[in-house]
Specification:
Elements: E1 2-7, E2 12-14, E3 17-19, E4 23-27, H1 32-43, E5 48-52, H2 57-63, E6 69-72, E7 78-80, H3 85-93, E8 98-99
Parallel strand pairs: 4-5, 7-8
Antiparallel strand pairs: 1-5, 2-3, 4-6, 6-7
């Protein structure tokens, strides 16, 4: 897993909820949609780690047509683009394995 940036504050509050798990944002450094997703996460004041899929053949095969993809480390649930701020908030509050 190649991390290329992000905002790694793991314990933070968003809309009155504390998030105590890691969020991964899968993408590539040249992906404009990934930049939009990162801006959205910043606006929500969420912490995350960016994972560059370009350096890993398995990740590239799995995510190349889906990026950006937000993944929860606690239950491996994934939220695929396109997503809104309300989608992300529902995702982090959810216990479901898959979204969208």
């Amino acid at each position: 897993m190649v991390v290329f940036g992000g905002n790694e504050n793991l314990n933070h509050q968003t809309s009155g909820h504390t998030v105590n798990f890691i969020l991964y944002l899968y993408g590539t450094s040249s992906c404009h949609l990934c930049e939009e997703a990162a801006t959205l996460l910043q606006d929500l004041r969420l912490g995350w780690s960016d994972v560059d899929i370009a350096e890993d053949g398995e990740l590239m095969q799995r995510y190349s047509l889906k990026i950006p993809v937000l993944q929860r480390a606690d239950n491996q649930a994934e939220l695929c683009w396109p997503f809104s701020g309300s989608d992300v908030l529902a995702f982090i509050k959810s216990e479901n394995k898959r979204q969208k």
